[in-house]
Amino acid sequence: MAVKELEKERAPQPAGFGVLGWARWFWRTLTSMKTALILLFLFALASVPGSLVPQRGVEPDKVARLFQQNPTLAQWYDRFQLFDVFTSVWFAAIYLLLFTSLIGCVVPRAATYLRELRRRPPAAPRNLSRLPHHAALTADLTVEEAARRLRARRFRVDTGDGWVAAEKGYLRETGNLLFHVSLLGLLVAVGIGSLFGYRGNVLVVEGDGFANTVANYDRFIPGREVSAESLEPFSFDLKDFKASYQVQGDKKGQELDYSAYLRVNDTPTAPARDYELKVNEPLEIDGTQTYLIGHGYAPVFKVTDGQGQVAFEGPVPCLVEHKPTLTSGCVVKAPDARPSQLGFLLRFLPTSVPLTDGTYASAFPGELQPEVQVLAAFTGDFGVRSGRPQSVYELAPTDLMKKLKPLVMGTSVPKPLAVGGSLDLPDGAGRLEFTGVKEWITLQIAYDPGRMPALIFAGLATVSIALSLMIRRRRVWVRIGDGGAVEVGGLTRTEGSAAGFAEEFDDIVKVLTAGDKDDR
Amino acid sequence: MTADRLAEVSDLFVLAAVLLYLFSMVGFALELAFGRARSDVAARRAKVPVTVGGAGGADEADGADGTAEAAAQEGVEPPSWAPKAGVAALVLGWLGWAANLGAIVTRGLAVDRWPWGNMYEFVVAICFAAVTAFLVTQIRQNVRFLGAFVMITATLGLGFAVKVLYTAAGPVVPALNSYWVAIHVTAAILSSGLFILAGVAGILYLVRGDGLSRLPSRADLERVAHRAIVLSFPVWTFAVIAGALWADKAWGRYWGWDPKEVWAFITWVAYAAYLHARVTAGWRGRAATIVQLIAFGCLLFNLVGVNIFISGLHSYADVN
Ligand code: HEM
């Protein structure tokens, strides 16, 4: 009803369409309920491609794959910003229009509301029996007494000659306004987060550490206003990682729990403390959160080259190929090997078991019988020093791969290597040793100054929408005639939420008839 | 009882619930087909003021049901067993409800965690919520006319869960081992149950013509739908926000446009659009119902479609 009143106030004027006329027309159209409705629909519709097309911010690898597999389509997607729907120009256009409309809607409503807060309930209509709720009774009642009894029921009351007008339920409008304002607040909070916050990912192997500087991230996504100096200067070492898995039954091999044991320095000078990092339990340091996202194996290798020198030694993080068994693919590169560089493609089996056909597979994600299969070994130029960006999970870019000289191919290595095992390359080209197993974890580190405001506004939105939808605005009038003839009429102002009012009305009638002494 | 035994008992309870819902549906359908619409209306008249949980409500100023009443009066005298079929259906419905509850409780005991950690458990719980919403509403108001349709929905839902989504009892991945399951998923289940009630009423609204029909009057249907949504929308809002809070704990951001989040958002906006549509003049009735059903479609797609067609971070969706 409030809306209708509002729309009456803004009834179309015969505009002498100058610039101002058009501006006024545009503003009126933008802030009308119809436009709000259309914008809401558009808002929902515009989000749909965000769930169907892979998003850069969420799955960058899938986007890259699409570019490889179907470049034409990917380019068209890119042209329409479909890989970045939620940061795209057109998405922003929709929600900015919606929120402008919202402001244009909320401000005049707030003004009306403030005026209404001070306004007295409207005088009684002439014919109370026309109202949806009506009762006629005889009682010994004065206007003052009726007003008092209604006030006692927390109605706002006005009186006149022989009548009482009462109204209640203003919280509904309060809730509605507060809800829309909270939505605005939420938008602002999200905006602050994306300007002043940052997010990054890093992989850490057991025994290694991490210090929070931009250079140490594998992937770093800063907000526009984030500078390298603004990062919280904490650091930690990964002492140990432990995972437990279901041992029996249908779900054998499913993760049950995992923890990363960190030794944390909150600032460079602060004393170190221990922290057990788990899923759902991030490490918080002064507003910066560190989350445990994933884990895998990093077998340790030693590569000796053709000249007998150690060309590489250390853990190699492997990509998980099969999650239920943590079978992982590893790439070992020794660009320092002489006379020529060496590289290996390997498969890591945490619990290796021989199959009947003579091959091996991992039967369990835990590290019960860790073994490494050598799939291939190459020598040649891996392009490590070419200055081109390299993936640690790839031996060499595709064009260079073709030029490499294979030393060993999978079929010629019958049995996987156990810890301590080694493989001598043919022609004295070198030697690969499998010396141990470590684990790696992936972390997400995030700083978002809009988190708390967003939470507050979201909470406010929930409470206020509940108020707005549950509370009804209702009016009651009492007219007192001669000889104790009393007429009572009532109505609810809100469509769809009048239930329960009939009872309340009956109660009111009872109180007016019999007094409120015995009314609870 | 051992965990395995409990899990078996839970499976049996689900089957019992399916059968009881099915029989209940038949009973409601018989009442609807052979009973007289008028008795419905009269009963509703008497009971109208009270609502579910004291919230939402009928709009007495709405005079539309008067015509439905008059129209329905012209019906033929119904066989005397028709109302009895309705009562029997109600009893069967409550029994099915109890079996459904039993299934959830025993499952929870068997796995020693909140029993909504995967799609199967989730759908079983939503069916329970929908039936609860219906049964509780009908205590206070006569919405028995919806019985057949709610029961068929619950039967199909449980059947789908058993046939397609079934997952043996077991532990969940670490990310789901959190008290947020209790908060976020429970809210999602509650509001989904109510939205289903509204959706059923909305579909009936469209199926039913304007003329004389065995089906309840359009005004009744619209009111039930609106009331359910009014009640459900804040709960859904809360569910989405609780989800964001959990995501903040689990994934390092409170909102990251994961497909599930996108569709929860779309659903939320669509129901907000429905509420707005009703406020805007001329968007009552058919148009509003269509908007509501679009929103309902988004909800269903989020519950089922996203898990099956789109991969995301929500790890409970393990449908093999
Ligand atoms: C961000 C998008 C928005 C959302 C999610 C939203 C949501 C809602 C909800 C849930 C209600 C409660 C409906 C009810 O009381 O039945 C509501 C009411 C209302 N909204 Fe919005 N809204 C949005 C934007 C807007 C905009 C842009 C306008 C103005 C052009 C607007 C104007 C109103 C009005 C006037 C009501 C009051 C209805 C009444 O008095 O009952 N809203 N809104």
UniProtKB/TrEMBL annotation, chain A:
Entry superkingdom: Bacteria
Domain called ResB-like: residue spans: 33-506
Chief subcellular location: membrane
Gene Ontology terms describing biological process: cytochrome complex assembly
Listed InterPro entries: Cyt_c_bgen_Ccs1/CcsB/ResB (IPR023494), ResB-like_domain (IPR007816)
Cellular component, GO annotation: membrane
Membrane topology: Multi-pass membrane protein
Subcellular compartments: Membrane
Keyword Membrane tagged: yes
Transmembrane segments: 36-53, 89-111, 177-198, 452-471
Keyword Transcription regulation: no
Protein name: Cytochrome c biogenesis protein ResB
Species annotation: Nonomuraea montanisoli
Lineage summary: Bacteria, Bacillati, Actinomycetota, Actinomycetes, Streptosporangiales
From TrEMBL, chain B:
GO biological process, one term: cytochrome complex assembly
Domain Cytochrome c assembly protein: 116-314
UniProt xrefs under Pfam families: Cytochrom_C_asm
Membrane-crossing segments per the record: 12-34, 87-106, 118-136, 143-166, 178-207, 228-247, 262-281, 293-317
Protein's membrane topology: Multi-pass membrane protein
Keywords: Cytochrome c-type biogenesis, Membrane, Transmembrane, Transmembrane helix
GO CC terms, sorted: plasma membrane
Alphabetical list of InterPro entries matching this protein: Cyt_c_assembly (IPR002541), Cyt_c_biogenesis_CcsA (IPR017562), Cyt_c_biogenesis_CcsA/CcmC (IPR045062)
Residue numbers spanned by region Disordered: 57-79
Primary site of residence: membrane
Subcellular location: Membrane
MF terms (GO), sorted A to Z: heme binding
Compositional bias of kind Low complexity: 64-75
Signal peptide, first to last residue: none
NCBIfam families according to UniProt: cytochr_II_ccsB
Name recorded for this polypeptide: C-type cytochrome biogenesis protein CcsB
Species assigned in the record: Nonomuraea montanisoli
